[in-house]
Amino acid sequence: MDLTTPIRLTGRAPKPLAAVEVRELQPSDFALLATERGIEPAPLKRLGERHHALARLLAQGVSPGEASVVTGLSGSRISILKADPTFAELVNFYKDKVDEQYVDMHATLAGLSLDAAVRLRERLEDDDEDKLSIGQLIEMTKLGADRTGFGPKSESTVNVNIGLAEKMQAARERAEARRKMIDITPTEGSA
Question: Which residues contact 69 (CB under 8 A, 6 or more apart)?
């Protein structure tokens, strides 16, 4: 092995460039360079579970970045999928389902909360015995108020720990080791 030959550390080895003249370029050829080629990725042929999971997340309003973390798909792949008509149809399908479920759940919880609030008011006014305690009625009222937009506001924070610092440190150590390997070159007179 020749130690003076540089060692390629990343990527594919470059291939020699070859060009063959087919014909002489015409001015009309240059005009074609300015036109849109219309290259689009091939449409999806099969929708897998990851596609469905991503479509459900996007339909629920999850950002593409968060969806990327959950599904393991890259941001660029998600962007390409969002432009695909088949995938867009799948997202719309799930969006309709999310809306239906929200309306059903919202109506049910609003009714439950209203019933509990009415019973609580009646109980407080009449002071007769009831099978539900006041604490239970209050909790039902809180639950319904919270789920119908009348509860206390809170923010959720998602903390994703992917070990970036450790990965960066390991990459630095590998790069330093490679640099040291490359710096070891034979000097004249040694061999």
Answer: 160
Give yes or no for a contact between 87 and 59, defined as CB atoms under 8 angstroms apart: no
Neighbour-count burial for 86-120, b at 16+ CB within 10 Å, e otherwise: ebeebbeebbeeeeeeeeeeeeebbebbeebbebb
What digits encode the pLDDT tens for the residues 17-61? 888 888 888 888 888 887 877 667 777 888 888 898 899 889 888
Query: Which of the 8 DSSP states describes residue 72?
Result: -
Please report, as a single letter, which amino acid is at residue 110. A
Alpha-carbon dihedral sign for residues 185, 189, 190, 191? positive
pLDDT tens across 124-172, in order? Answer: 677 656 567 778 777 877 777 777 666 666 666 666 666 777 888 888 8
Query: 144-157, pLDDT tens digit by residue?
Result: 777 766 666 666 66
Other beta carbons within 10 Å of 7:
9
3-class secondary structure, 84: coil
- Name the token pair of 68: 């990327």
Exposure on the CB side of residue 154, measured as CA atoms within 13 A: 6
- Predicted TM-score of the model (pTM): 0.38
Handedness of CA 180, 181, 183, 188 (dihedral sign): positive
